[in-house]
Amino acid sequence: MPVVMPIFGTRPEAIKMAPIVAALEQSELFDCVVTVTGQHREMLDQVNQLFGIVPDHDLDILQPGQSLSAIMTRTIDGLDTLFKAGKPDAVIVQGDTTTSTAGAIAAFYHGIPVIHVEAGLRSGNLHSPFPEEANRKITSQIASLHLAPTSTSRANLLAEGINADDVVVTGNTVIDALLATVDKNIPFTDPQLEELAASGRKILLVTTHRRENQGDAMRGMGRALARIADAEPDLVIVLPAHKNPVVREAVLPALEGKTNVIVTEPLAYGEFTRMLSLAHIVLTDSGGVQEEAPSLGKPVLVMRENTERPEAVTAGTVKLIGTGEEKIVAEVHRLLHDRDHFASMANAVNPYGDGRAAARTLAAIAQLLGTGTRIDEFGTACV
Ligand code: UD1
Ligand code: UDP
Predict the structure, then answer these.
(1) Is 83 in the pocket of ligand 2 (CB under 6 A)?
(2) Which protein residue has the closest C-alpha to ligand 1 atom 17?
(3) How many domains does the chain have?
(4) Could you tell me the residue range of the domain that residue 23 belongs to?
C-alpha cells in the first residue's frame, strides 16, 4: 500500500490537514504516516488533540523567537534524516508556512512527489504577506499535484505555466473542518466566555499575528481597540491572543483595565468556531478566519492592504481596511451603527468550499499514485 506522509507544523496547517488525515486513516488505499515539525507547539498540539491526531514523527523544532531561516533549516535537516531512514511514496504539504515550503523542498531533494494543498493563492505582492507569498510560489514550482481551493487559485497556477492536468479544484479543507466542528456547541473553558455567550451582548472578535503587521501597525491596532472599547460600552471585544510574545507586547498594553475587553489564550478550534458563530463582527489579519467567517454570514474587516483570498471580498462579506488606527475605528463604528451597511456584509456565502475537499483530495492523490481516479471538482455540478 502506498505510504502518504502529511507534513505540518502550525495551527492553521493542522486545522486544514485534519480532514485529510481523517480521510487517509479511514481509507484502505493508503498508509498514512503523520509528521509534524512542531513549528508551533501549544497551538499545534491543541488542534491535534481536538481531532485525535497522534503524530508518528515530531521534529520538535520550535525555538522562542525563531527566525525564518531556523524554521527552514531545522525542518529540512529533520526531514532529511527521516527520508534517509525510509521514503514515503508522496508527501502532502498545506498552504504557505515555512514548514510547508521546507517540507516540499526536503521531499523534492529526495525525489518524493509533493502534493500541495491550498495551492495557487496569490496576493500579487512578493513581500505581502511575508514570507507566505514567496513560500507558496516556491512550493508551486516543485509540486507534482496542485490542489487549488477555488477556480481563481487554479487560474493563478495556469497563468504561471503550471500544467492544467496537475491541478484539481477541491475547495478548501478548512470548510470541511468548520462544518465538522461548528454545530457541536462546545463549552468554553474560560467561564467569562460562557457568561458572555449567555448575555447576548454584541461581540467584536479580533485576531492578529501577521509578521508584516508586527511593530507599529499592531500597536495602532491596540490603540484602535482601546478607543472602540471606550466608545462602545455595550460591545464586548474578545481577543484570543496568538502565542507569539511579539504580538502580545504590541497589542495588549493599550487594553489593560478595559472592562469590556476579554483577552484569552488561543481558543481550542471548537471553542473558536463557536465564538465565530456568536460574533457580530470579525476583525482580523488571519487567512483562515477570512475563509471561515463568510460561511457563517459574519462581516469581516481584514487588517491588511491586500489579500490572496479575493472571493469573499467580491461576495461583499469581507472588506480590506488596512492597518491604520483611524480606519479601524471608523469601519467598526460604521458596521455597528449603519444597519444597511451591516446587512450588506452579513451574508452567508461559501466561495471556499462545500465540505467535500478532503474527499476530492484523496481521489486526486489516488490518481497520482495509480490506485484510483479523480471525482467531480469543487464548483462543478456532480454528474
Ligand atoms: C506562522 C506562519 C504563518 C501563519 C501563522 C499561523 C511562517 C513563517 N509563519 O507564523 O504563515 O499564518 O504561523 O498562526 O511559517 N509561539 C509559541 N507557541 C506556539 C506558537 C508560537 O510559543 O504554539 C511563539 C514562539 O515564540 C515563536 C513565535 O510564536 O517564535 C512565532 O511563531 P512562528 O511559527 O515563527 O510564526 P507565526 O507568526 O506564528
Ligand atoms: N483559530 C483557533 N483559535 C484561535 C484563533 C484562531 O482555533 O484562538 C483558528 C481559526 O478558526 C482558523 C485558524 O486558527 O482556522 C487560523 O489560524 P491563524 O490565524 O493563526 O493563521 P492563518 O490562517 O492566518 O495562517
Answers:
(1) no
(2) 243
(3) 2
(4) 3-172+353-368
